[in-house]
Design a protein that fits this description.
The complex is a heterodimer of chains A (about 110) and B (about 120). With about 110 residues, chain A is mainly β. Helix content of chain A is about 0%, strand content about 50%. Chain B is about 0% helix and about 50% strand. Chain B is built from no helices and twelve strands. Chain B is globular, with a radius of gyration of 14 Å. The chains are: A mainly beta (about 110), B mainly beta (about 120). Chains A and B meet through strand 4, strand 5, strand 9 and strand 10 of A and strand 6, strand 10 and strand 11 of B.
Chain lengths: ~110, ~120
């Protein structure tokens, strides 16, 4: 039973570029959440998707957007990248929002 | 808003020592509480959870008790092993309301166990 998978593992971009990160949830899970983890910090909630709609959003600017597909997989898009966007981006899935979340290994995004 | 505060780290222990990592929270209402562990280069793994006051979560020798009166959820283990070296995160979430399903994390505590 595959867990949460994220791609790519690492990514290097320059300021002003755009990036798309991908996530496949654990089999049977229908809810996907995204978190940003800066170095030495705890993860910060970006948003959550359920039934292809954004249900919850954290305190992140509109440069951060997402999508959920009918097969429950999800994408995180970040436009106009800033140096401060350098972080580990974690995807988590659950069967409904109030169940424990299972995390992927993350995508390490570096902005030069 | 909701927040979680963990004890300052890092924590360095010898193998078989007793471990306590303190966690307190601020929240409106009664959240569920979690401990997650992150090994180097990996994502977070759920270690244990508690959903209501006085519940005790336990797993792999780790324990934590949900204390509503002190708004705390301290992590303990009686005898740590080198393999327990990792970063530990305390977190909360709500089963309903405007923060439904959103995890709020503490800043993490680095644990290093020496042989």
């Amino acid at each position: 039973d595959a867990g949460v998978t994220q791609s790519p593992t690492h990514l290097i971009k320059t300021r002003g570029q755009q990036v798309t990160l991908r996530c496949s949830p654990k089999s049977g899970h229908d809810t996907v959440s995204w978190y940003q983890q800066a170095l030495g910090q705890g993860p910060q909630f970006i948003f959550q998707y359920y039934e292809e709609e954004e249900r919850q959003r954290g305190n992140f600017p509109d440069r951060f957007s997402g999508h959920q597909f009918p097969n429950y997989s999800s994408e995180l898009n970040v436009n106009a990248l800033l140096l401060g966007d350098s972080a580990l981006y974690l995807c988590a899935s659950s069967l409904q929002a109030n169940q424990p979340q299972h995390f992927g290994d993350g995508t390490r995004l570096s902005i030069l | 808003g909701d927040s979680v505060t963990q004890m300052e780290g890092p924590v360095t222990l010898s193998e078989e020592a007793f471990l306590t990592i303190n966690c307190t929270y601020t929240a409106t209402g009664y959240p569920s509480l979690f401990w997650y562990v992150q090994y180097p280069g990996e994502g977070l793994q759920l270690l244990l959870k508690a959903t209501k006051a006085d519940d005790k979560g336990s797993n792999k020798g780790f324990e934590a008790t949900y204390r509503k009166e002190t708004t705390s959820f301290h992590l303990e283990k009686g005898s740590v092993q080198v393999s327990d070296s990792a970063v530990y995160f305390c977190a909360l979430s709500f089963a309903g309301g405007t923060s439904y399903g959103k995890l709020t994390f503490g800043q993490g505590t680095i644990l290093t166990v020496h042989p």
